[in-house]
Amino acid sequence: MVTHEDVIAIARLSKLYIPEEELDAMTKAMDDIIKFADTINNASEEGVEFDNINNLSNAFREDEVVPSYDREEILRNANDIDEGHFLVRKRV
Amino acid sequence: MKYEMVAGFETHIELATNTKIFCSCTTQFGGDPNTHCCPICIGLPGTLPKLNKQVIKYAIMAGLATNCEIANISKMDRKNYCYPDLPKAYQISQYDKPLCEHGYVQLSSGKKIRLTRIHIEEDAGKLIHKRGDTYVDYNRGGVPLIEIVSEPDIRSVEEAKEYVEKLQQIMRFIGISDCKMQEGSMRCDVNISVRPEGSDKLGTRTEIKNMNSITFIGRAMEYEFQRQVDLIESGGQVEQQTLRYDDVSNTTSSMRGKEDANDYRYFRDPDLVTISVTDEEIDELRKQIPELPFQKAERYVKEFGMNEKDAQNISKYRRIAEFFEEASDGVKTPKTVSNFIIGQIFRRLETEDDKEKFDIAITAQQLKELVKLIDEGKVKNNLAKSTLEKMLDTGKSVTEFISESDMAGMDEGTLAELCKKAVEANPKAVADYKAGKVKALKSMVGFVMKESRGKADASAAEAKILEIIS
Amino acid sequence: MESKIRHYSNMLKNREITCQELTEKYLAGIDTSNKDLNAYVTVTAEAAIEAAKKVDEKLSRGEEISQLEGIPMTLKDNISTKGIETTCCSKILEGYKPIYNATVWETLQAQGAVLLGKTNMDEFAMGSSSETSYYGGASNPHNINHVAGGSSGGVASAVGGNIAVYGLGSDTGGSIRQPASFCGIVGLKPTYGAVSRFGLIAYASSFDQIGPITTTVEDSAIVYDAISGYDKMDSTSQGRKGAPTMDTLKNDIKGMKIGIAREYLEGVRDDVRVCIEKACEVYKSLGAEIVYFNLPALKYALPVYYILACAEASSNLGRYDGIRYGYRTDAYKDVNEMICKTRSEGFGDEVKRRIMLGTYVLSAGYYDAYYKKAQNLRGSIVNAFKNAFKSCDVILAPTVPMTAFEKGNAISDPIETYLTDICTVPVNIAGLPGVSIPCGFSENGLPIGMQLIGNTFCESTILNAAWQYENAVGSEVFKASEYGVKL
């Protein structure tokens, strides 16, 4: 059973606010989904170790420098910048 | 009651690769903010990491140099936490299958500090807080790190300092990091708890984060040890928490905010594939591990009859050790070489950093030339010393300062001639000597040395003068 | 069915139409039809004309053009296009213009593709109707009161509505095949690793694949051959294995073993099952052999998919914090509150639900029961398919157990909607290739689709089987909608 407290804790980890008035609905939704997810625990089989989809290994890159992007490009999509930095300004 | 300190370290070391761990941006320290960045290391949507091969090599070398077992199979995991310096809101790290495990670092006492593991991960960017505003620079984001986790085997500040120094030496020696604590390329977190001496139970520990100087580590540990002892003595309890050390006030204080909810939700990074290393590859890397400082020191004592302190001083810095070994190769008295290095060359290298860089004007071969002349009796010690100074000033070879004729030595006749001259020129000294002032003899020997421009043999001159005046 | 791409390419080569004229016709088509279809969220008319002019110049110089050169197409809005807004149809990425190109777009652009614009999708590809889009859902060109499907609903609507010759979508749990099925067209989800994911904005990294949505099987083969390839930027990339799929597309399929897993037909609507049975008859007439077997591991496919995909999503979507790009809230006390408010205001409900579910199944105390267990069952499903392909060459299954939902129905009950993905998710779980092709119509005229599933890197086999079917049934089944450009 998913509780309000669970939802609040999960929301905090997820960096989301669940407004008071939506808490019931979100708890219900989570509970439904978790019950649905729980059906895997009815599986009689334990399953087998899963590594990665095509069992790949060793995809490496050589240690060779490629010029970085212009700072203007790097900062292009930022909401706020100052002195070449991404900026989060203090607000009240 | 007497208390004992129980401490373990988590040490982050930036690897000296050319490029970042998952993209091809430079790892160079400094640079204008956000100029060592690309879509990958600022975590733009849709970008993917590609692992730098050199990171694996360096991390395995670190493991081999600290007696670790190297995993044939390991993998990368995501450590999820949201903080503005972490552009993807997860750090790619290794959780349950690190590259290296079960190693140790041996202290000079012979005690082994066990290493739980060494794993690879990416560094975060840098935050600057100004008047409540937060500035973010991602130049450092994605720089490769190894994290070396020790068991809580450390019992004193001295052991702690030696442990950190040893790590620093080893990593520098194998060339995988410059371990500059002041630039943050080596950073230590220390877990510390106290317990009554003799007890084998572990007390509640605190963690002091991110210390970047060996001195501060010592002070912080002393402070924190005392704080915990005082707390327990006054009937209180140590609370498990993360602390920050303030070097100005020399106190520790609680860190809040960053990891209030400590649930990292580790899971395998689906963007990266398995890391598989064969025994052959590991052996190949093992061959690249040079003789380490303490191994060298031991050998110097055994082979060259050097005293332990000198041996340690020479072997501590890779470049110096290499210089020493090259300069003393084939000379009769390696000790002469080490004396020159410790006596004269070290005087020119004031800081640890200077010694690490070992930027001096002459080559090992040039020093060797000089020492060989001493070995052959062609140049006397005093002359050699002053010549070395000139060489170090100019970078020129010994032959620039001492000519062939200088080196030819001095025949008996010439020496007798000079000694006679010395006796004649210093009647007062002769009189003084005869009156029992032994020192007066020295001034006459000095005269001979000066006249011969250092070529004469001082003890032979002394004998000759005595012969003349007695 | 004639390849549309080849048809247009020939018209360009024979100078029956200029590329600019062709492009303008499509832009005009968008102008008139997009109001109904809501397929496009960004139209790049100027850039398209520019690209078209270059092709015309090349042609007028008498130079050769490649097959995809000058063909007007579209990209799903989660494929990064430098300088062109790429939002995943989320408020949180409003205004975001990537500073780099996805590898697939780099590849197509180099071949002279003409991009008409970016197409609608469920927010961050999470949904089955494209109605979780910040810009509202895309409509089904066969009946605009029904959804185009999702999450690549915009691409399917544009291609089915003939306002793009082809498009690239992405498929995490059916997001290419399901809308293709709903819109009566062809959608290929390639083997995991065949097409680079670099630049595809991640939903669930170990499931996501980019693939073509087209009106004919041959077009899918042409586009797949063009975009598949090893990419050093993607560690999970392997590229196409073997010869181009076009080489064997029209081969005889006599003796080909087509497998039917009984589980796929359970709970499927009658008209859909009938269409599958009819398709079996077609295949038999083409000389293929139908073999039946069981795939009991499929029983857990849906929860396994939702647990793992959401877990990955919760991590992939952590980066939307308002600092480097995208939406940022106005009022906040400190950085942490800025991040939480930005995310709460920027993400829609379905995305939030999936982030929450993903966080939950990874969190301390639940990891083993959900994430770990699901991962192990994923292993079982992979093995089950491996075994199945010992006794057949392709697996034939419905794409969706029903036809396109009426608008507004999909989002009312999330779990009900999740259940409709039952036939598509197993392919993603096992990383297999699957192609959805039309196989009939419902009573009310909505398309029904079926999928052909192949073993890893066997795109050639499924496209070959798909082409033979298409060739046998023709335009009665592969019926164009009323919308858009027809030349």
Protein described:
The complex is a heterotrimer of chains A (92), B (470) and C (487). Chain A is built from three helices and three strands; from the N terminus they run H-H-E-H-E-E. Chain A is flat and about 55 Å long. Chain A is mostly helical. Chain A has a two-stranded antiparallel ribbon with strand order 2-3. Chain A has a domain at 4-42. With 470 residues, chain B is α+β, with helices and mostly antiparallel strands. Chain B has three domains: 3-284, no CATH class; 291-407, no CATH class; 412-469, Arc Repressor Mutant, subunit A (Orthogonal Bundle), CATH 1.10.10.410. Chain B has helices at residues 53-65, 157-173, 214-233, 279-288, 293-304, 308-315, 318-327, 334-345, 352-357, 364-375, 381-394, 404-407, 412-425, 427-434, 439-451, 458-469; strands at 3-14, 51-52, 69-70, 73-74, 77-80, 90-93, 100-106, 112-122, 126-130, 133-137, 144-150, 186-196, 206-211, 242-246, 251-254, 267-268, 275-276. In chain B, the strands form four sheets. Chain B has a nine-stranded mixed beta sheet. Chain C contains 15 helices and 13 strands. In chain C, helix 7 (217-227) runs antiparallel to helix 15 (459-473) and helix 9 crosses helix 12 (367-391). The longest helix of chain C is centred in the last third of the chain and has 25 residues, at 367-391. The mean pLDDT of chain C is 96. Chains A and C meet through helix 1 and helix 2 of A and helix 9, helix 10, helix 11, helix 12 and helix 13 of C.
Question: Would you summarize the structure shown here?
Answer:
The complex is a heterotrimer of chains A (92), B (470) and C (487). Chain A has helices at 4-13, 20-38, 71-75, and strands spanning 60-61, 81-82, 85-88. With 92 residues, chain A is mostly helical.
